[in-house]
Amino acid sequence: MQNQTLQNTVSYVCAKCGAKEEIPEDVLEYFDEINPEMLFFGSHQFTCEKCGTGIMKPEKESEIIIKGYGLYDGLERS
């Protein structure tokens, strides 16, 4: 099996244990659609599945450009 590169994802890292996870953009955009007021507070954050208590944040915080529901337009992709 060949090693495949994930496209259209945002790299998230746990602030506590350092675990990394690739979150698909379509998942992040779904959260934008169901809770659009959160767009004003920055990137989505998640609880780390590995350690259970850490907070997962984007590995690279970059300028966010809001275009409709396209919060992730302009972010560097992995």
What does this structure look like?
The protein is globular, with a radius of gyration of 13 Å. The chain is of the alpha+beta class. The chain has one helix and four strands; from the N terminus they run ββαββ. It has a four-stranded antiparallel β-sheet with strand order 2-1-4-3. It has one helix at residues 25-34; strands spanning 9-14, 20-24, 46-47, 55-58. The longest helix is centred in the middle third of the chain and has 10 residues, at 25-34. A hairpin with a 5-residue loop joins strand 1 (9-14) and strand 2. The protein starts with 8 loop residues before the first strand and ends in a 20-residue tail after the last strand. The protein has one domain (1-78).
Order of helices and strands: EEHEE
User: Spatial order of the strands in the main sheet?
Assistant: 2-1-4-3
Question: Low-confidence spans: pLDDT under 50, at least 5 residues?
Answer: 1-5
Please report the total strand number as a whole number. 4
End-to-end separation in angstroms reads 21 Å
Number of helix segments?
1
Radius of gyration: 13 Å
Global outline: globular
Helix content: 10-25%
What number is the mean pLDDT?
78
Structural class: alpha+beta
Strand percent estimate: 15-25%
The largest β sheet comes out as:
4 strands, antiparallel
- The structural domain count equals 1
